[in-house]
Amino acid sequence: MNSNKKKIIIVGQGISGTFLSWFCYQAGIDFIVIDEPRPNVPSRVAAGIINPVTGRRVVKVWLDDIIIPFAERAYQAMGAFLNLPAITKTAIVDFFPNPFMKESFLKKLAQKENYISILENEAAYAPYFNYEFGIGMIEPAYVVHLQQLLPAWNAFLKKQNLLLEETLDVSALEVHPDHIRYNAITATTLVFCDGTAGAANPYFSLLPFALNKGEALLIEAPDLPSGHLYKKSMLLAPMAEPGIFWTGTNYIWDFEDENPTAAFYQSATQTLKQWLNIPFKIVDHKASVRPATVERRPFAGFHPVHTNVGILNGMGTKGCSLAPYFAHQLVEHLRDQRPLQPEVDISRFKNILSRPLQ
Ligand SMILES: Cc1cc2nc3c(=O)[nH]c(=O)nc-3n(C[C@H](O)[C@H](O)[C@H](O)COP(=O)(O)OP(=O)(O)OC[C@H]3O[C@@H](n4cnc5c(N)ncnc54)[C@H](O)[C@@H]3O)c2cc1C
């Protein structure tokens, strides 16, 4: 076979493109990844947290009992393959920010909700934090080591000649019913895992994206124990480098650019000063835009008219847990025509996507 002839072109190597290419590799499906290396894409700014519960009412996340164990196994397998710790199982120490949040938590506890318990020995955290309303525990939670995993998979792909580090120019794509050409590459299929760029991509811009911007600080806090995640109105997560913690975040729906804002810097610094009892130093401030969707469900599947052009996107705030499961499902769909989860299958937008390309 001509080496420029591929079965699949995968556009993007954030978490979605990483897992799509990983499962193609596992399944022996011929592919090439084209990724524009940008440092501030969400997969490179995210903390990598998988939290099994969400919101003020402490509800279990969607498909928790399927998606989270699947993600844990997928990260472990990829970590073993790349010889690095890709995921750490941990717990979230949840400092109740007010009596109402405590009440919600206790209500869920009384209903015997999974994942949550009350910490009896509250005093254990007094040397490090200020808190008044008690502490809940959420476990298991996970930290995915994206800062190690994504570059390691990138290096592997490069070594195997399976990666082009460049921007794919969508207008230069030649999409024919039985093949796709992009410069010297011919493929049967192309899947966009292009994150927020998907909202301006002529094939998929009509999907109901709801992009939102989020920010984080990296702080140096050498006295803070690194065994857990900590949550009050913000989250603190230990990074692989000792003494360094990620902290965030916010949700900005109306934004002009992807840059960090002074407002977040100030409010996050203030919150940390009130919350932490130990010295800390801010070492970085990052921002990125989440590829979120109106329905809060990912987009997976193939275009109704250009049926060899696909998408894996819309991971919103939960790329770390959703991307492995739905990348795997998309590979099974491609290989064995297995159905996709109806809530993510873009065939639900058949009518709108059948309009002329934007
Ligand atoms: C502050 C913040 C904190 C977050 N924290 C968490 C968290 O703790 N846990 C969690 O699960 N999620 C978190 N998220 C959400 C998570 O980051 C996203 O869900 C996830 O990264 C989306 O991954 P993706 O691969 O779909 O898209 P992206 O990360 O955007 O990757 C898309 C890739 O495609 C490339 N690309 C785009 N267009 C082209 C083109 N034309 N040619 C070539 N390459 C192209 C981009 O350069 C990029 O590399 C957070 C997000 C933010 C902003």
TrEMBL record:
<dbReference type="InterPro" id="IPR006076">
    <property type="entry name" value="FAD-dep_OxRdtase"/>
</dbReference>
<dbReference type="Pfam" id="PF01266">
    <property type="entry name" value="DAO"/>
</dbReference>
<feature type="domain" description="FAD dependent oxidoreductase">
    <location>
        <begin position="7"/>
        <end position="332"/>
    </location>
</feature>
<dbReference type="InterPro" id="IPR036188">
    <property type="entry name" value="FAD/NAD-bd_sf"/>
</dbReference>
<protein>
    <submittedName>
        <fullName>FAD-dependent oxidoreductase</fullName>
    </submittedName>
</protein>
